Each structure stands twice: as structure tokens, then as C-alpha cells.
Amino acid sequence: MKKVLVTGGLGFIGSHTVVELQNEGFEVYIIDNLSNSKIEVLDKITSITGVKPSFFNIDLRDKAAVKDFFANNKVDGTIHFAAYKAVGESVQIPLEYYENNIGSLVYILQEMKANNLNNFIFSSSCTVYGQADELPITENAPVKPAESPYGNTKQIGEEIIKDATKISELKAIALRYFNPIGSHESAKIGELPIGVPQNLIPYVVQTAAGLRDELSVFGSDYNTPDGTAVRDYIHVVDIAKAHIVALKRLIEDNNKSQFEVFNLGTGQGNSVLEVIKSFEKVTGKKVNFKLVARREGDVTAAYADTNYANNELGWKTELSLDEALLSAWKWQETL
Ligand code: WQD
């Protein structure tokens, strides 16, 4: 049974990926320091798959702990999710973001190299493109100067990995997610925003649940059909399944170069108002909202060109926006 390390494996995308890895017969080791996740997620994963992943409460900024883990666990692959990811927060505490997101990445790569462990999947983001000049966005779109320290850690992270592949046998794939949303069909795992949600869908479902008075729609004067910003909302389970395809690509040596990048999106752009309308349609719930000023740092539109991921990686999305929105609501109802 192939062994795989999932860092941040109790988080939103991490936990969904652990479920799909177990469904595919992988033995999963999770490292998580619970800074943005809950230990209860471990039992939820176990209740879905019937298999309890091995869990290590390690802070990846602890170089000695990272060294010890890789010296004692010869994993066939590493999927690295663990990172701080709040755009706005990263502007407030940039040094913590660089220490955590970059420091932990370097330690992991050092110890993988020391133990000749060479298959690495990196959680990246479409945020590296900023406002792309052309839509849909391909993997060849230029990486724009980061709009936030968070986005910068993703850009720098990719550069570090690329450099690491030049001095070792490391094979790496960076997966640039567009906007992951939704929850597992069991409604046992999902997005657990701490405090006031920064992202759209958690805020929408909390408003529908009556936990928030009304949603503020950031900007209604964008150059889009209805004036609100457009994004590519992709079901988190489709994102999770892409990680298994990418991991198998590396384990089976089907990669075409030591550093590859794939966009993970549906190829479909939807505006904020379209998302609200779809959510109300599939759930029958009302979402109170008001149109307010744009949010600093937001781009007008971002959605993926999916050809390269479909044809080269051999992966495509299977779930719709409506299914994702309904699953997000079903998850919210359990909280
Ligand atoms: C989506 C749209 C907002 C909240 C960010 C990161 C990206 C990834 C996903 C981590 C935008 C609008 C939002 C609200 C709103 N994060 N909105 N009212 O900004 O596209 O992407 O989160 O990996 O890297 O950049 O996602 O969900 O915050 O916003 O109108 O209360 O919804 O303006 O147009 P975003 P988002």
C-alpha cells in the first residue's frame, strides 16, 4: 500500500483529499498543527472511509520535528496543504505568513531531499495570476506581482520548488486552484471558517442560516455582465480528486518534467449575483445582500482554461456549481 503524507490534512481541502486518497487505497499520514482546523475532523474522515489516518500534531516550523518525521516515515509522496491562507490577514501579519508558509516548505523539501523522497504536490492558487490579461486563464499566463503576502508565498513557493528540482531528483506538481467550494456528500466534512468568513460561499451559507444579517457584495461596477466580479467556483471534491491523479502521475513517472503546473478550475465563470441566485434556487433559502464598494485587491474576473489539465493531467471536473452550493448548504445545516 503506497504511503502518502498530507500536511494540513485536517483542513478544508486537505480533509477532502485524505478521503479520496483512502478511497483509492493509499495509506495516509496527516501532519497538522490544528492552527486552522479541528481534531474532530480526524474522526469524521474515519467515519466516512472506515479507515483512521495516522495523525501527527507537528508544527512544520519545527525543523527538528520535520527532520524526525521524514527520517522515520518513508512516504511515497507528499501533498503539502499546510499554510496560512487568508488574503486580508496576510497584509496585517506578513512576517508570520512568510515564516509559516515559506519556512515550512523549505524544511519539508530539505528533509525529503535528505531521505531521497521525490514526489511532491504543492497547493498553489490562481491568485498568482492576479488580473490576467486574457480569459480564460492558461498555465502560461504570466505570474503577476502578488496582490498580497499570501499570494506572494504561493509565487515564492513555486520558485523554491522549481529550484529544488534542479539540485535533486525531486518531481513536483503545483496545482493552482481557482475557487474551491462545497463539501463532501456525507456533510461530515466541509469548510470551517474561524470567525467572520472572508470567502463568499461561507458567508452566503451563514447568511442563509441567519447567522449573518446580510451579505455585502463587494463591488457592482465591474466590467462584467451584471457588474459583480466573476470567479471559477470548483467543487472541493473535484479539487481533491485532481490531487490523486497528480500524485499517481509522479509515482508512476508519467510527469513530462520535474516541475509541472496545472490549473484546477471548471472553466466556467460565475458572478457573485449569479452565485446568490443559484444558491437560492437549489436550497430554497433567501440570501439578504447589499451592494457595497469593491474590496481592495479583488480582480474583476478569473476563470480557468481547462484544456491542459483535461488533456495532459487527464482530469476534469464532474460536479456542477449547483451541486457544490447545495453541498455547502447541507454542511452548514450540520453546524
Ligand atoms: C470571491 C468573490 C469577492 C466575500 C481568495 C483567494 C484565493 C483562495 C480563495 C485561498 C470576490 C466576493 C466575497 C463577501 C463578496 N484562497 N465576495 N462578499 O478573493 O476570489 O479568492 O479565496 O487559497 O487564493 O485569493 O475568493 O471567496 O474571497 O471572493 O462579494 O463577503 O466574492 O469580492 O469577487 P477570492 P472570495
Verbal overview:
With 335 residues, the protein is an alpha/beta fold. 40% of the residues lie in helices and 16% in strands. The chain has a domain at 3-183 and 234-266 and 305-317: 3-Layer(aba) Sandwich (Rossmann fold), CATH 3.40.50. The protein has helices at residues 12-23, 40-49, 63-72, 87-92, 94-114, 149-165, 200-208, 236-251, 272-283, 307-313, 321-334, and strands at residues 3-7, 27-31, 54-56, 77-80, 119-125, 171-177, 179-181, 215-218, 230-231, 233-235, 259-264, 270-271, 289-292. A 7-stranded parallel β-sheet has the order 3-2-1-4-5-6-11, sandwiched between helices. Strands 7-10 form a two-stranded parallel sheet. It has a two-stranded parallel sheet with strand order 8-13. Helix 5 (94-114) runs parallel beside helix 6 (149-165). The protein is globular, with a radius of gyration of 19 Å. The structure holds UDP-4-deoxy-4-formamido-beta-L-arabinopyranose. UDP-4-deoxy-4-formamido-beta-L-arabinopyranose binds at residues 85, 87, 125, 127, 179, 198-200, 203, 215-218, 229, 231, 272, 295, 298. UDP-4-deoxy-4-formamido-beta-L-arabinopyranose binds next to helix 7 and strand 8.
The backbone outline, from C-alpha atoms, is: globular
Q: Which residues sit in consecutive blocks of at least 5 with pLDDT less than 50?
A: none
Strand order of the largest sheet: 3-2-1-4-5-6-11
Give the distance, in angstroms, between the N- and C-terminal Cα atoms: 35 Å
Radius of gyration of CA atoms, rounded to a whole number: 19 Å
Strand content: 15-25%
Largest sheet: 7 strands, parallel
CATH-assigned fold name of one domain: Rossmann fold
Named once each, the bound ligands are: UDP-4-deoxy-4-formamido-beta-L-arabinopyranose
Structural class: alpha/beta
Q: What proportion of the residues is helical, as a percent range?
A: 40-55%
Number of helices: 11
- Summarize the helix and strand pattern as letters: EHEHEHEHHEHEEHEEEHEEHEHH
CATH superfamily of one domain: NAD(P)-binding Rossmann-like Domain
CATH architecture of one domain: 3-Layer(aba) Sandwich
